[in-house]
Amino acid sequence: xxxxxxxxxxxxxxxxxxxxxxxxxxxxxxxxxxxxxxxxxxxxxxxxxxxxxxxxxxxxxxxxxxxxxxxxxxxxxxxxxxxxxxxxxxxxxxxxxxxxxxxxxxxxxxxxxxxxxxxxxxxxxxxxxxxxxxxxxxxxxxxxxxxxxx
Length: 150
What we know:
Blueprint: H1 2-17, E1 23-24, E2 42-44, E3 52-59, H2 64-81, E4 86-93, H3 97-103, E5 109-112, H4 116-127
Parallel strand pairs: 3-4, 4-5
Antiparallel strand pairs: 1-2, 2-3
Helix pairs in contact: 1-4, 2-3
């Protein structure tokens, strides 16, 4: 828990330095998704009109693929509902190169902790209208199969 708080405080400081408004996970109820509503570590600027979310994760190479699957589904869930929202994951620890490559197909930014200030600047530019920072739009929906026609 101490490690998580430390990692998130580094990201929070980078956002503060870039004047990016945000809410921490503990400051809001949920971020609406296609399948479920849950909270990200950071939502920018808020859960009502989200422009970006950030997840912060430390991993070992043994657990990297499990964390990646979980976090990628969260990103697909949230970006599927909020089509123009940036998805960011800030990573620390021993992530495998293959896992990072796969996550980069869903997240707009997969960055190491030491680049938190760079991603904060990119988010700042995005919320000010620079759409070049949005890399992925995810179309994901669930519809009734209308079983009455059978």
